[in-house]
Amino acid sequence: MIVRVRNPSLAIGVTTVAAIAVAAILGPLLFRADPLSIDLANTLAGPSRAHPFGCDALGRDVLARVLYGARLSLSISAVVVAISLVIGSLIGATAALSGGRIDNLIMRGVDIVLAFPGILLAIALAAILGPGLIDLAIALTAMGWTGYARIVRGEVLTLRERDYVLAAESLGASRSRLLMRHLIPGVVGPLAVQATFGIGGIIGAEAALSFLGLGALPPTPSWGNMLDAGRAFLLVAPHLTTAPGLAIGLSILGFNLLGDGIAQKVGHRA
């Protein structure tokens, strides 16, 4: 019996993201190897039954570090996307509801931020603030809120022309009531799509900054600093970069497919 999936991107995306989330949450509980435990007897050891992904230059279990790195990447990404979404939504809604000079001033500010490549802006801010998870989150948030601001502004401007919104305005509804009751529900779908793609982008950006030494610092397990540590042993121990590299690639692919699937579903409903 052949089962036809109407939205394969959504199905594959949900499955991939769920698997990564389960691995991040339950993996360290089921696979109890210490990601920080040094065992020089297993320096650069290849994959084995005891160490399925092998060991690094200090004999630390690579699988354990990948699992704990998943926790860090997903946590940072979720926090950054949540803060960016709130900040961007408030700024975008304020611009759309205010109109005139305020709208123009806010959007010119957004354009100025967008003029800089996001990852370069994050690198510059991370270099100024210094390495560390809090500073990393601040740098990534600074590059992430603009997309939400533009989406919310555009959607709110469109929704304000709908008959039910015009009717509510004519009956004297306040801006806050219009926003909460009539406008925000209309932007949930586009924001969900943007947030899903955003998580994938933040995972890649966090790995890049950690690879450059501007994110999580050793010995904290991070996919980015694992890649950095493993590049010196590409020929003798390729498993050091293969495991975190696959984790980054699958995570980004999973969230991108999920975002594409949600976009198709939202577009179909619309």
Main attributes of the structure:
mainly alpha, MetI-like fold, single chain, 73% helix, 9 helices
Describe this structure in words.
- There is one protein chain.
- The protein is about 75% helix and about 0% strand.
- It has about 270 residues and is mainly alpha-helical.
- Helix 2 packs parallel to helix 9 and helix 7 packs parallel to helix 8.
- The chain has nine helices and no strands.
- It has one domain: MetI-like fold (Orthogonal Bundle), CATH 1.10.3720.
- The chain is elongated and about 75 Å long.
Q: Brief description of this entry?
A:
This protein has 270 residues and is mainly alpha-helical.
Mean pLDDT: 89
Which percent band covers the strand fraction?
A: under 5%
Q: What Rg, in angstroms, do the CA atoms define?
A: 22 Å
The shape is elongated
The CATH topology assignment is MetI-like fold
CATH homology superfamily = MetI-like
Series of H and E elements:
HHHHHHHHH
Report on the biggest sheet. none
Q: Spans of 5+ residues with little confidence (pLDDT < 50)?
A: none
Separation, N- and C-terminal Cα atoms: 32 Å
Which architecture per CATH? Orthogonal Bundle
Please count the beta strands (DSSP E, at least 2 residues each): 0
Tally of contiguous helical segments: 9
Structural class: mainly alpha
Class in CATH? Mainly Alpha
How many individual domains?
1
User: Helix content range of the residues, please?
Assistant: over 70%
